[in-house]
Amino acid sequence: MRGWEPFLTAQDKAHLEYLGPREPKGFGENPCLLVIDDYYSVVGLVREPILESIKTWPGSCGLEGWAAIDETVGLLAAARSSGIPVIYVHGLEGFPSSWGRRRGNAGRLDHLPAEVRAKANQIIEEIAPQPGELVLQKAAASAFHGTPLPFHLTYEGIDTVIACGETTSGCVRATVVDGCTFRYHMGVVEECCFDRTQASHWLNLFDMNQKYADVVTKTQAINYFETIGPKKIPIAVSP
Amino acid sequence: MRGWEPFLTAQDKAHLEYLGPREPKGFGENPCLLVIDDYYSVVGLVREPILESIKTWPGSCGLEGWAAIDETVGLLAAARSSGIPVIYVHGLEGFPSSWGRRRGNAGRLDHLPAEVRAKANQIIEEIAPQPGELVLQKAAASAFHGTPLPFHLTYEGIDTVIACGETTSGCVRATVVDGCTFRYHMGVVEECCFDRTQASHWLNLFDMNQKYADVVTKTQAINYFETIGPKKIPIAVSP
Amino acid sequence: MRGWEPFLTAQDKAHLEYLGPREPKGFGENPCLLVIDDYYSVVGLVREPILESIKTWPGSCGLEGWAAIDETVGLLAAARSSGIPVIYVHGLEGFPSSWGRRRGNAGRLDHLPAEVRAKANQIIEEIAPQPGELVLQKAAASAFHGTPLPFHLTYEGIDTVIACGETTSGCVRATVVDGCTFRYHMGVVEECCFDRTQASHWLNLFDMNQKYADVVTKTQAINYFETIGPKKIPIAVSP
Amino acid sequence: MRGWEPFLTAQDKAHLEYLGPREPKGFGENPCLLVIDDYYSVVGLVREPILESIKTWPGSCGLEGWAAIDETVGLLAAARSSGIPVIYVHGLEGFPSSWGRRRGNAGRLDHLPAEVRAKANQIIEEIAPQPGELVLQKAAASAFHGTPLPFHLTYEGIDTVIACGETTSGCVRATVVDGCTFRYHMGVVEECCFDRTQASHWLNLFDMNQKYADVVTKTQAINYFETIGPKKIPIAVSP
User: Which C residues 44-63 touch D at CB under 8 Å?
Assistant: First the structure.
């Protein structure tokens, strides 16, 4: 049973049963691994349940976040040992036009000492970028907007983006929809995504799997990376 | 109580309660109404429950769809009588690079007579565009990608997009996320959106309301249109 | 000598000589041919010098246009016989937000009988699309904006766009700059581009060749198509 | 006489005369000033003629560059004293997918001491950003691609972009074409743009003025800024 099933209604289940089993969309030959918004303010500095953690870090996802980070360690190792390029995105600091015109977030971290607050937008150490890996800053939910990510994917001939990070219902979902729009093969690694709302986590995995991506287990993702191995470099032809 | 609450877990409810009531994001001064993908293949030609309707139209949302269409009639009338521009989007026919690389959809309507099948991508008559209203074709979920919609919004000085249509979890959600990314004030009219999965419908309304938009009732949307009235035309200044 | 040299100043020539010969940027392995805005209103229905032709068709490029169309016939034949996909773009009719907020163009063709005017936006018969070839409509200079062209290129794994059409300084230039921005290998076929201003034609070929593309002869383009032959279809891998 | 006229052919002049005088496209009510790529490597650290300057800085535009920088000082002062927001763009350092797949540029500055080379991508001191002004990094010619600039313009309700910087035929031109595509009113300040090729400088001003923008003098731009004065802040309306 997939984790989203308890959230579906009886009508939803009857509807899905009528339509029959879903066929995988499939991945391509030249993937990258995209790690989305895994920075400290979404898990906190200490491993605590979400309802504890938000007392210090209002945007924290708590233990679900740390569990996903722990799983991401192995996913990253597999990508790197197979020569799959790893790309990180996180928030562009100092951009004045707030994402989504959200109000009420100003000073959310004002209660924290400056040296703690400085870690908010820092990528979590356990899964930090290695030298030479691309780290992009974004000013919206999707990694594809307002960033040169699409340029890089075309330049490298990448046809498949395997995504993980947080939140499942926010930046991961927005990135996956755009990747699908732009006609990349999209994958989502279930254990390596997390959210601050359980229902949103599971229903967004369901939605992405139905419409835009293949939601796979960490084991499936690693098997895919190992099957592909190092990507082939495209060869330029002079006119 | 909002319709998404029954889908939330106990932890989700405790989390939301801790964060406190959500403040509206707010609308701007120059809105448009965007009607997304309200064509026949998503409701069928006959008003039937979804589990009946999908026997003829596999993509049908059934009675939930027709209920939303009925509500949209009044929403459109209010927009038009207040001078709010109405824009429609639906699928670009004949584009060869299938949206989301979905497989297994070919021939889904092959069992239908040609004259019935021809109605599949036709906008539903009860809410059809009036002469002079803009109708755009898109090749992805979001109305903002691969279309000149953003050009038109800037040209007209529009700062707010009030969205409705189907599916809540598909093209409506994708459009609302992008509109927010591009820094438009986004609204979603609850009664005028529909989906083929009940859980997805409600959780996507929840997600949009939390992150990207104000999910409002039809009455609130109409009140807003009437408050705004006809938009002001920007005046050009010669150099 | 390249055709742009007579337009360069003495300082420009000294500067270029100091920098030394320009190395080709190179093409990739999976090209398409993009035919931009070759419709009747930019050449007229009759082969006349530009200063005659504009009396009927104010946007006409005259004999330079027809010469480029004649060359394009052979370019298309070579692409097709080598299995290189051909894509056409031309203007989206009826889009209300005029491109570039240009004034003074309304009614430019009002003096023409309706049946003649109807040919204005029609692709020129000698180089018309063949069944199955993609024809996209655009609402701006560049073929990459407000259209699903980038989706299609990614979907097909295309890495190189060989461009031709009109005007060299308008839609061709804008498309080539964007293609380069999006990290496609870009080519421009010199004999198959045309403009209504001679100086703009040559200087834009120079600019594109310096910065964004390889400006090649028709013979070079045909040789490249024949070297590449039919593109390889990427193979999907299931997760 | 405009500076591009000596570059036009006899046919070009006859053609333009037949079409008659060009009407200005016009500016809007809420402009910004966009300063494009004015960093040291395009003028050098010392004011020298281009053919001298390129011996140290191969990308230098020499004295034409410094002349434009000097004019930009007054343009910036006028914008600031009128409350017109100023936005800067320059190159994103360390992005691995080179712009336009250009070859042969690697190590262009290798002959310079590290502390000199460090100034290459630094904005020129005389026209440097003031605290609070937005500085964006881009990975392509146009300021609109791969950056959150369009988000910010919509957020601020900006309808007009007055551009200056370098090169006229490169990043200025690409930005102006995109701004026009996205339906902003575009202006170009003639004295504040510069290029390393004289013919390209003048013909690109001509092209932009014909198709995409109003190319104005510094005095015209300052008059426009003073007419507009501080921009009006849009007022949000709650649903």
Answer: 50-51, 54, 58
For residue A204, give the nearest of A169, A167, A172, A177 by alpha carbon: A169
Picking from A86, A95, A154 by the largest number of D CB atoms within 10 A of its own CB, the best residue to mutate is A95
- CA nearest D142 in A: which residue? A148
Peptide bond into B227 cis (omega under 30): no
Number of CB atoms found within 10 A of residue D191's CB = 18
Neighbours of B92 (CB within 10 A): 19
The verdict on a CB contact (< 8 Å) between A97 and D147 is no
The strand pair at C185-194 and C160-166 is best described as parallel
Question: How far, in Å, are A136, A155, D146 from residue D96 at the CA level?
Answer: 11, 9, 14
Q: Are C195 and C169 in contact (CB under 8 A)?
A: yes
pLDDT of residue D104: 47
Alpha-carbon distances of C167 from A23, A179, C179, C195, C219, rounded to whole Å: 46, 32, 16, 5, 21
Out of A151, A184, A235, name the one closest to residue C29 (CB).
A235
How many helices (H) and strands (E) chain D has is answered by 8, 6
pLDDT, tens digit (0-9, with 9 covering 90-100), for B39-79: 999 999 999 999 999 999 999 999 999 999 999 999 999 99
- Contact between residue B222 and residue B164 where contact means Cβ atoms under 8 Å apart: no
Facing residues of D34 across strands?
D87, D163
Sign of CA dihedral D107, D109, D111, D114: negative
- pLDDT value at residue D22: 87
Half-sphere exposure at residue C9, Cβ-oriented, CA atoms within 13 angstroms: 15
Residues B28 and D237: beta-carbon distance below 8 Å: yes
Residue A23 predicted with pLDDT over 50: yes
Bridge partner residues of D39 (DSSP):
D123
| Confidence band for B36, pLDDT divided at 50, 70 and 90 | very high
Q: Is A21 on the interface with B (CB under 8 A)?
A: no
Q: How far apart are CA C86 and CA C219, in angstroms?
A: 17
Q: Report pTM.
A: 0.94
pLDDT averaged over every residue in chain D:
92
Strand partners, A109: none
The predicted pLDDT at position B18 comes to 94
Chain D, 192 to 231: residues with Cβ < 8 Å from chain B are: 214, 216, 220-221, 224, 227-228
Question: Is the model more confident about D23 or about D99?
Answer: D23
Residues of B in contact with A149 (CB under 8 A): none
Closest CB to C102: pick one of D9, D19, D25.
D25
Tokens (6 digits) for A64: 């679900």
